[in-house]
Amino acid sequence: MQKESIYGRMTNAEKEVANVLKEFGIQWSFEQPIFVWDENKRPRVWAPDFYLIHFGIYIEVCG
């Protein structure tokens, strides 16, 4: 069985961001779940689109 490409789960905008990150040689992980607190101080699990591994930055692509 062949493993599905991660790009098959991305929107066109997310693919564009992934390509730019690749051009700059920036390593990332896609939709890595994290634990956060919402505005009402309730615990939540959120999966932002990209986590830039060496920078410790999360990116959510809108649009």
What does this structure look like?
This protein is of the alpha+beta class. The protein has one domain (6-59). Helices cover 19% and strands 27% of the residues. It has one helix and five strands, in the order αβββββ. The strands form two sheets. A three-stranded antiparallel sheet has the order 1-4-5, with no helix packed on it. A two-stranded antiparallel ribbon has the order 2-3. The termini are far apart.
Order of helices and strands: HEEEEE
Shape: globular
Question: What is the tally of beta strands?
Answer: 5
For the largest beta-sheet, the strand count, sense and barrel status come to: 3 strands, antiparallel
> How many distinct helices?
1
Q: Which bin fits the share of residues in helices? A: 10-25%
Biggest β-sheet: strands ordered side by side in the sheet: 1-4-5
Structural class: alpha+beta
Short description:
With 63 residues, the protein is an alpha+beta fold. The chain contains one helix and five strands.
Structural topology:
Blueprint: H1 12-23, E1 28-30, E2 34-37, E3 43-46, E4 50-52, E5 57-59
Antiparallel strand pairs: 1-4, 2-3, 4-5
Keywords:
single chain, alpha+beta, two-stranded antiparallel sheet, 19% helix, 27% strand, 63 residues, three-stranded antiparallel β-sheet, 1 helix
